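Bumping my old thread because nobody answered last time. Still need a sequence for this structure:
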């Protein structure tokens, strides 16, 4: 039998509460906030999107964040081990979450690498007059997938670098690697990002952009897709139901306040997200202003195109654009890094516990496998399509399924809801009432199941 049942004598630990909060915010604040949220909000009702978003945060985001914390902290293991300690067969759920994380890491790394390349390209505005044809265009070619030399130099090389840094951080361990990386990265990110947003909102046309983002389209509220998008955004953005927060909370000391840090993390993350929306759309308003068109006339307001085609156009138009570009892509890189480290720590920690490997052994194994897949995939022209597909399945369907299974299993099948709530309350200052059991046991699963069915039907028809 593997060593998985016997916890190592010394579990790795954060140096303290601040370390944990920093790392948890670092995990939450990522590409999802800067690169995903603004476009998703714009596409799903603009200002009206904030309503499903807020409801998703309060009815599922924070409650499931607490659930992740309670499982990891009480059962002191990465997701597979912690669930296994609850019930041997629940281990499978843990591995399902690890699988989702792994799949996401493959494309997440690629986006970091793109951003890294664009950081460098910003200095010389190297995309010239044609941001579309410059780079992402390689992925937009139709026909048989081929390896492209542009992609090898602009993506594969930075990907190697990305993975090397991830590997080093993981190999240094939780306190000296992961926590340190966040300790350096997070303050840097906040400062750079604030500078970016201030610059963006003072550009001519910024208010048009904000109007476009925040003008509510109330009709969107009756569209189930909009609600799914809100829940998916919250799950992705808070890094919940991926087993990652289970892992992170398993590295806290036994007597550790869990709930109040959770609230800090959740609100910090959403604030950053809204701030990113303001920054990104102010900049888009500026672009529309320069081109003398309306925001809606600009193509590419969502997804990868927004950051890597539309944004370069903004940067080219702007006085001092190089600096702005470097700040923007630099923020993407740093925000992405502190998140992908958490994803990989979840995977690597699980492999470590399951197979009794050392920290370095499992860090090398896991990063190497993930690196090879992402480098191979994103050096070919099919990378972007793969990203879209994975984003649909892993983020919208996979993680919602994971959350449903988690809540049903813990609350109804294994009946651990009260035990977990007592555990959180015993260690924390902010006390959770029975409303929590109701949210994770009834409201959450019902909402999520309904949305999941809608989504699957719409993807299949
Ligand atoms: N929360 C991160 C973001 O917003 C991404 C992430 C997803 C991190 C899943 C960990 C797990 O970009």
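Sorry it took so long. Here it is:
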């Amino acid at each position: 039998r593997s060593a998985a049942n016997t916890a190592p004598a010394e579990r790795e630990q954060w140096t303290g509460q601040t370390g944990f909060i920093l790392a948890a915010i670092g995990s939450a604040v990522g590409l999802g906030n800067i690169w995903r949220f603004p476009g998703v909000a714009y596409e799903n009702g603009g200002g009206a999107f904030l309503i499903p978003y807020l409801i998703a945060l309060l009815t599922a985001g924070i409650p499931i964040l607490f659930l992740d914390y309670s499982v990891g902290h009480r059962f002191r293991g990465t997701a597979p081990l912690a669930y296994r300690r609850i019930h041997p067969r629940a281990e499978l759920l843990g591995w399902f979450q690890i699988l989702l994380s792994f799949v996401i890491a493959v494309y997440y790394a690629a986006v970091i690498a793109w951003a890294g390349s664009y950081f460098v390209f910003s200095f010389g505005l190297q995309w010239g007059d044609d941001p579309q044809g410059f780079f992402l265009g390689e992925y937009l070619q139709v026909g048989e997938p081929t390896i492209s030399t542009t992609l090898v130099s602009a993506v594969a090389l930075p990907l190697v670098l990305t993975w090397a840094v991830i590997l080093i951080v993981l190999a240094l361990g939780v306190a000296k690697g992961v926590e340190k990386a966040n300790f350096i990265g997070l303050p840097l990110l906040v400062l750079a990002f604030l500078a970016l947003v201030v610059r963006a909102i003072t550009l001519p046309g910024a208010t048009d952009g904000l109007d476009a983002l925040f003008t509510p389209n109330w009709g969107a509220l009756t569209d189930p897709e909009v609600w799914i998008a809100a829940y998916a955004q919250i799950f992705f953005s808070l890094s919940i139901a991926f087993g990652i927060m289970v892992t992170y909370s398993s590295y806290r000391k036994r007597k550790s306040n869990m709930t109040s840090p959770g609230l800090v993390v959740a609100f910090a993350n959403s604030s950053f997200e809204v701030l990113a929306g303001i920054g990104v759309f102010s900049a888009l308003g500026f672009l529309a202003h320069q081109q003398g068109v309306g925001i809606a006339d600009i193509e590419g307001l969502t997804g990868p195109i927004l950051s890597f085609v539309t944004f370069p156009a903004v940067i080219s138009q702007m006085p001092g654009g190089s600096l702005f570009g470097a700040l923007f892509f630099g923020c993407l890189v740093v925000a992405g890094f502190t998140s992908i480290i958490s994803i990989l720590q979840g995977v690597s920690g699980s492999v470590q516990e399951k197979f009794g490997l050392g920290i370095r052994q499992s860090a090398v194994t896991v990063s190497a496998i993930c690196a090879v897949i992402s480098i191979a995939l994103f050096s070919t022209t099919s990378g972007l399509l793969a990203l879209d597909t994975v984003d649909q399945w892993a983020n919208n369907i996979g993680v919602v399924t994971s959350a449903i299974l988690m809540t049903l299993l813990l609350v109804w099948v294994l009946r651990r809801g009260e035990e977990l709530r007592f555990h959180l309350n015993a260690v924390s200052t902010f006390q959770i009432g029975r409303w929590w059991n109701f949210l994770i046991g009834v409201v959450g699963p019902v909402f999520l199941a309904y949305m999941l069915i809608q989504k699957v039907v719409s993807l299949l028809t």
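The two ends are 45 Å apart (CA to CA). Let me know if any region looks off to you.
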